Amino acid sequence: MKFAKYHGLGNDYLVIRPQDVGPEWTLDQPSARHLCDRHYGLGSDGILLGPLDSNTCDFGLRIFNSDGSEAEKSGNGLRIFARFLWDQGVVDERPFSVETAGGEVSCEVAKDGREVRVEMGRVCFDSEAIPVVGERREVLRETLEVDGESLTFCGASLGNPHCVVLFNAPRSKDAYRFGPLIETDPRFPGRINVQLMEVVDRNNIRIEIWERGSGYTLASGSSSTASAAVARRLGLCDSAITVHMPGGNLELQFDDDFRATLIGPVVRVGSGEADLEMFEAPLVG
User: Fold this and answer.
1) Quick one: CATH architecture of 2-114+267-280?
2) pLDDT for the residue numbered 228
3) What contacts 255, CB < 8 A, 6 or more positions away?
4) Cβ contacts of 205 within 8 Å, gap of 6 or more
5) HSE on the CB side for 131, CA within 13 Å?
6) Helix axis angle, 221-233 relative to 75-87, nearest 10°?
7) What percentage of the chain has pLDDT greater than the value 90?
8) Span 161-165, average pLDDT
């Protein structure tokens, strides 16, 4: 199996073309988890399988988390996929569309592939879309009791689910403490991505991220989009927002209907060929 590896602000993905998955391979949840393992496999935060055929878009894409589960949408993953298509000579500077399990998006590559602009779609706060249990409502400024603390959170969806917690000076240890507990809280029946968000000023926020299916993450495009949208919806930020994360910064822009445009860098790490021998040793844990 041939692969390419890229990262977006430290959030790394393996990109695998369907034609490079030989008959001896099966890219399913166990094999994806093994490939992503940083000790027994190639190591990554996820896998991008594409380009796939699509009836509605220029390209189709499947996204795997590091635990082997599938993600509906990933801002960093989409930027990396766009850069991969650019490197393969499949796309140029013109916008193109990608179908994901979380909806259709439009991508545009700039700066010789080093920067990608993604139209992420509309962010909504509806409890049924996220989903969050209870009567239908916008999930804004609700209370969640976690590990003896009372936390204020908002829910958001852009095709995948997010819980944005209003938090003062979040640090990585806070994400490790609260993230896995919130991810699996029963009020989120599909599990959920978690962001601890501090609003710095009208145009800047800081977040720490716990990704559903991947754990602690240095940067995330969809998490940035959801967090910035919540800050905008609460009236705490304007329409142009810089999201600061441990891995670096992303730029978000919103229209009046909360349709989001994400702009950020992509770095090519390298490429290679995976060997079946890695599966001979079982994963531990």
Assistant:
1) Roll (3.10)
2) 98
3) 239
4) 197, 198, 199, 227, 228, 231, 237, 241, 242, 243, 244
5) 8
6) 130
7) 94
8) 98
Q: Which DSSP string corresponds to 97-118?
A: EEEETTEEEEEEEEGGGTEEEE
Question: Is the predicted pLDDT of residue 285 greater than 70, yes or no?
Answer: no
> Which CATH superfamily groups domain 122-260?
Diaminopimelate Epimerase; Chain A, domain 1 (3.10.310.10)
Decide: residue 92, CB within 10 A, 0-12 exposed, 13-18 middle, 19+ buried: exposed
> Residue 209 in contact with residue 193, Cβ under 8 Å?
yes
From CA 207, how far away is CA 280, in angstroms rounded? 39
pLDDT for 123 equals 98
Tokens of 203: 């145009």
**Beta strand pairing status for 11-16 and 46-52?**
parallel
Question: Is the predicted pLDDT of residue 89 greater than 80, yes or no?
Answer: yes
pLDDT tens for each residue of 38-75: 999 999 999 999 999 999 999 999 999 999 999 999 99
* Mean pLDDT value across residues 204-224: 96
The confidence score (pLDDT) of residue 22 equals: 78
Question: Distances from the Cα of 102 to the Cαs of 60, 158, 197, 201, 246, in angstroms?
Answer: 11, 7, 23, 30, 26
User: 207 has which bridge partners?
Assistant: 197
Q: Do 2-114+267-280 and 122-260 come out as alike in CATH topology? A: yes
Report domain extents, the chain: 2-114+267-280, 122-260
